[in-house]
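Please, structure for the following, as C-alpha coordinates.
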Amino acid sequence: MVRHATPHVHSVAPPDQTSQATDIMGRVEWRGPVVLVALLAIGAGGGYAASAQSRDTAVGSGVPSPVPAQRPEMPVEAPRPPAPDPDDPALRPGLEMAPATLGTGKFEITFPAPVGWRTNANASNEWKWKKPGTSNNSYVMRIEQIDSQDITIEDAIDIRIARLRDEQQDVDIVGRGAASLEYTYRSNEGNARHSFMRWLDLDLSGQADVEIVVHGRERDVEGAKDLIDTVADGMRGAGGGPL
Protein backbone atom coordinates (compact mmCIF):
# COMPACT_ATOMS: atom_id res chain seq x y z
CA MET A 1 0.00 0.00 0.00
CA VAL A 2 1.43 3.18 -1.14
CA ARG A 3 1.06 6.19 0.99
CA HIS A 4 0.92 9.49 -0.66
CA ALA A 5 2.71 12.23 1.14
CA THR A 6 0.49 14.99 2.26
CA PRO A 7 1.77 18.23 0.97
CA HIS A 8 2.73 20.75 3.59
CA VAL A 9 0.62 23.83 3.26
CA HIS A 10 2.12 27.00 4.63
CA SER A 11 -0.47 29.27 6.15
CA VAL A 12 -0.28 32.85 4.96
CA ALA A 13 -1.20 35.44 7.52
CA PRO A 14 -3.79 37.94 6.42
CA PRO A 15 -2.37 41.33 5.57
CA ASP A 16 -1.97 43.75 8.42
CA GLN A 17 -4.57 46.45 7.83
CA THR A 18 -2.80 48.80 10.16
CA SER A 19 0.41 48.58 8.11
CA GLN A 20 -1.54 49.20 4.92
CA ALA A 21 -3.10 52.28 6.38
CA THR A 22 0.26 53.50 7.50
CA ASP A 23 1.74 52.98 4.05
CA ILE A 24 -1.16 54.78 2.41
CA MET A 25 -0.88 57.73 4.82
CA GLY A 26 2.84 57.86 4.31
CA ARG A 27 2.40 58.03 0.57
CA VAL A 28 -0.28 60.72 0.98
CA GLU A 29 1.87 62.68 3.40
CA TRP A 30 4.79 62.47 1.02
CA ARG A 31 2.75 63.55 -1.97
CA GLY A 32 1.07 66.37 0.02
CA PRO A 33 4.05 68.73 0.08
CA VAL A 34 4.77 67.98 -3.53
CA VAL A 35 1.22 68.88 -4.52
CA LEU A 36 1.30 71.99 -2.33
CA VAL A 37 4.56 73.15 -3.88
CA ALA A 38 3.15 72.53 -7.32
CA LEU A 39 -0.01 74.49 -6.52
CA LEU A 40 2.01 77.35 -5.14
CA ALA A 41 4.19 77.39 -8.23
CA ILE A 42 1.12 77.41 -10.47
CA GLY A 43 -0.47 80.17 -8.39
CA ALA A 44 2.68 82.29 -8.43
CA GLY A 45 3.07 81.83 -12.14
CA GLY A 46 -0.56 82.66 -12.74
CA GLY A 47 -0.32 85.72 -10.49
CA TYR A 48 2.81 86.93 -12.25
CA ALA A 49 1.16 86.41 -15.62
CA ALA A 50 -1.97 88.26 -14.47
CA SER A 51 0.16 91.05 -13.05
CA ALA A 52 2.19 91.29 -16.23
CA GLN A 53 -0.97 91.34 -18.30
CA SER A 54 -2.40 94.04 -16.04
CA ARG A 55 0.75 96.14 -16.37
CA ASP A 56 0.77 95.72 -20.10
CA THR A 57 -2.85 96.71 -20.48
CA ALA A 58 -2.41 99.64 -18.04
CA VAL A 59 0.16 101.37 -20.24
CA GLY A 60 -1.63 104.12 -22.16
CA SER A 61 -1.05 105.15 -25.71
CA GLY A 62 -0.95 108.46 -27.49
CA VAL A 63 0.71 111.79 -26.71
CA PRO A 64 1.03 112.59 -22.97
CA SER A 65 -0.89 115.66 -21.80
CA PRO A 66 -0.54 117.75 -18.61
CA VAL A 67 -2.80 116.92 -15.69
CA PRO A 68 -4.44 119.84 -13.84
CA ALA A 69 -3.19 120.32 -10.28
CA GLN A 70 -5.60 119.32 -7.55
CA ARG A 71 -4.93 122.51 -5.58
CA PRO A 72 -3.61 125.11 -8.03
CA GLU A 73 -2.11 128.24 -6.47
CA MET A 74 -2.52 131.79 -7.73
CA PRO A 75 0.46 133.06 -9.70
CA VAL A 76 2.81 135.31 -7.77
CA GLU A 77 3.09 138.79 -9.24
CA ALA A 78 6.65 139.89 -9.87
CA PRO A 79 7.70 142.86 -7.74
CA ARG A 80 7.34 146.19 -9.48
CA PRO A 81 10.08 148.78 -9.18
CA PRO A 82 8.92 152.10 -7.69
CA ALA A 83 8.19 155.05 -9.92
CA PRO A 84 11.04 157.56 -10.29
CA ASP A 85 11.22 160.15 -7.52
CA PRO A 86 10.69 163.83 -8.33
CA ASP A 87 14.08 165.46 -8.72
CA ASP A 88 13.34 168.31 -6.27
CA PRO A 89 16.26 169.13 -3.94
CA ALA A 90 16.26 167.10 -0.73
CA LEU A 91 14.61 168.39 2.44
CA ARG A 92 17.40 169.52 4.75
CA PRO A 93 17.49 169.78 8.54
CA GLY A 94 17.59 173.15 10.29
CA LEU A 95 14.77 174.88 8.45
CA GLU A 96 13.88 178.41 9.53
CA MET A 97 10.78 178.18 11.72
CA ALA A 98 8.13 180.66 12.90
CA PRO A 99 5.26 180.28 15.43
CA ALA A 100 1.91 179.13 14.05
CA THR A 101 -1.51 178.68 15.64
CA LEU A 102 -4.35 176.32 14.78
CA GLY A 103 -7.75 175.72 16.34
CA THR A 104 -9.64 177.87 18.80
CA GLY A 105 -10.52 177.81 22.47
CA LYS A 106 -9.53 174.66 24.30
CA PHE A 107 -8.56 173.09 20.97
CA GLU A 108 -6.00 175.79 20.14
CA ILE A 109 -2.45 174.61 19.51
CA THR A 110 0.72 176.59 18.83
CA PHE A 111 3.90 175.19 17.29
CA PRO A 112 6.90 176.13 15.13
CA ALA A 113 6.19 175.85 11.38
CA PRO A 114 8.58 176.16 8.40
CA VAL A 115 8.85 179.73 7.15
CA GLY A 116 7.51 180.21 3.60
CA TRP A 117 5.52 176.96 3.52
CA ARG A 118 1.86 177.26 2.60
CA THR A 119 -0.90 175.70 4.64
CA ASN A 120 -4.04 174.10 3.31
CA ALA A 121 -6.97 172.90 5.43
CA ASN A 122 -7.99 169.39 4.44
CA ALA A 123 -10.75 169.38 7.08
CA SER A 124 -11.86 171.40 10.09
CA ASN A 125 -9.31 169.57 12.25
CA GLU A 126 -6.57 168.77 9.70
CA TRP A 127 -3.96 170.95 7.95
CA LYS A 128 -1.23 170.32 5.42
CA TRP A 129 2.04 172.28 5.00
CA LYS A 130 3.93 172.27 1.73
CA LYS A 131 6.78 174.29 0.29
CA PRO A 132 5.58 176.23 -2.78
CA GLY A 133 6.89 174.91 -6.08
CA THR A 134 7.72 171.40 -4.84
CA SER A 135 6.42 168.41 -6.77
CA ASN A 136 3.86 165.93 -5.58
CA ASN A 137 5.49 162.94 -3.86
CA SER A 138 8.40 165.08 -2.74
CA TYR A 139 7.82 166.12 0.91
CA VAL A 140 4.90 167.45 2.92
CA MET A 141 3.78 167.84 6.57
CA ARG A 142 0.32 167.19 7.98
CA ILE A 143 -1.10 168.05 11.43
CA GLU A 144 -4.40 166.68 12.72
CA GLN A 145 -6.25 167.29 16.01
CA ILE A 146 -7.75 164.01 17.21
CA ASP A 147 -9.04 165.07 20.66
CA SER A 148 -12.58 163.88 19.92
CA GLN A 149 -11.51 160.30 19.20
CA ASP A 150 -10.86 159.56 22.89
CA ILE A 151 -8.11 157.01 22.29
CA THR A 152 -4.74 156.46 23.86
CA ILE A 153 -1.55 157.04 21.92
CA GLU A 154 -0.89 153.30 21.87
CA ASP A 155 -4.32 152.65 20.35
CA ALA A 156 -3.79 155.45 17.84
CA ILE A 157 -0.58 153.81 16.66
CA ASP A 158 -2.26 150.41 16.38
CA ILE A 159 -5.09 151.92 14.32
CA ARG A 160 -2.63 153.69 12.04
CA ILE A 161 -0.65 150.51 11.38
CA ALA A 162 -3.83 148.56 10.61
CA ARG A 163 -5.02 151.25 8.18
CA LEU A 164 -1.65 151.40 6.47
CA ARG A 165 -1.58 147.66 5.84
CA ASP A 166 -5.18 147.71 4.66
CA GLU A 167 -5.00 150.76 2.40
CA GLN A 168 -1.39 151.00 1.18
CA GLN A 169 1.03 148.75 -0.68
CA ASP A 170 4.51 147.57 0.30
CA VAL A 171 4.14 148.80 3.90
CA ASP A 172 7.20 148.24 6.09
CA ILE A 173 7.18 149.35 9.74
CA VAL A 174 10.74 150.59 10.24
CA GLY A 175 10.40 151.60 13.87
CA ARG A 176 7.80 152.10 16.59
CA GLY A 177 8.21 154.09 19.79
CA ALA A 178 5.95 154.93 22.69
CA ALA A 179 4.53 157.89 20.73
CA SER A 180 6.13 157.61 17.29
CA LEU A 181 6.11 155.54 14.12
CA GLU A 182 8.47 155.31 11.16
CA TYR A 183 7.47 153.38 8.05
CA THR A 184 7.83 153.10 4.29
CA TYR A 185 5.17 152.37 1.68
CA ARG A 186 4.28 152.76 -2.01
CA SER A 187 2.13 155.79 -2.88
CA ASN A 188 -0.92 155.61 -5.13
CA GLU A 189 1.28 156.93 -7.92
CA GLY A 190 3.80 154.12 -7.33
CA ASN A 191 6.47 156.20 -5.60
CA ALA A 192 8.48 154.89 -2.65
CA ARG A 193 7.67 156.96 0.44
CA HIS A 194 9.39 157.28 3.84
CA SER A 195 7.25 158.70 6.64
CA PHE A 196 7.57 159.79 10.27
CA MET A 197 4.65 160.18 12.70
CA ARG A 198 4.30 161.58 16.23
CA TRP A 199 1.35 161.64 18.65
CA LEU A 200 1.02 164.15 21.48
CA ASP A 201 -0.95 164.21 24.72
CA LEU A 202 -0.92 167.97 25.29
CA ASP A 203 -3.11 168.10 28.42
CA LEU A 204 -1.65 164.97 30.02
CA SER A 205 -5.08 163.30 30.00
CA GLY A 206 -3.76 159.94 28.87
CA GLN A 207 -5.38 160.38 25.46
CA ALA A 208 -3.94 161.42 22.11
CA ASP A 209 -4.63 165.06 21.18
CA VAL A 210 -2.55 165.68 18.05
CA GLU A 211 -1.15 163.57 15.22
CA ILE A 212 1.77 164.86 13.14
CA VAL A 213 3.20 163.22 10.02
CA VAL A 214 5.93 164.17 7.54
CA HIS A 215 6.12 162.25 4.26
CA GLY A 216 9.17 162.33 1.99
CA ARG A 217 11.52 160.44 -0.27
CA GLU A 218 14.54 158.48 0.87
CA ARG A 219 16.69 161.54 0.16
CA ASP A 220 14.44 163.55 2.52
CA VAL A 221 14.76 161.23 5.55
CA GLU A 222 17.24 163.36 7.51
CA GLY A 223 15.31 166.59 6.98
CA ALA A 224 11.91 164.96 7.56
CA LYS A 225 12.94 163.54 10.92
CA ASP A 226 14.42 166.87 12.01
CA LEU A 227 11.25 168.71 10.95
CA ILE A 228 8.79 166.48 12.81
CA ASP A 229 10.92 166.47 15.97
CA THR A 230 11.15 170.28 15.94
CA VAL A 231 7.40 170.74 15.46
CA ALA A 232 6.41 168.09 18.04
CA ASP A 233 8.88 169.26 20.68
CA GLY A 234 7.72 172.87 20.32
CA MET A 235 3.96 172.24 20.25
CA ARG A 236 1.75 173.52 23.11
CA GLY A 237 -1.94 173.28 23.88
CA ALA A 238 -4.37 176.00 24.84
CA GLY A 239 -3.05 176.10 28.40
CA GLY A 240 0.51 176.56 27.18
CA GLY A 241 1.75 173.86 29.55
CA PRO A 242 4.52 171.38 28.89
CA LEU A 243 3.97 168.26 26.81
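Confidence is low (pLDDT under 50) at residues 1-15, 17-45, 47-60. Helices lie at 17-58, 153-167, 221-233.
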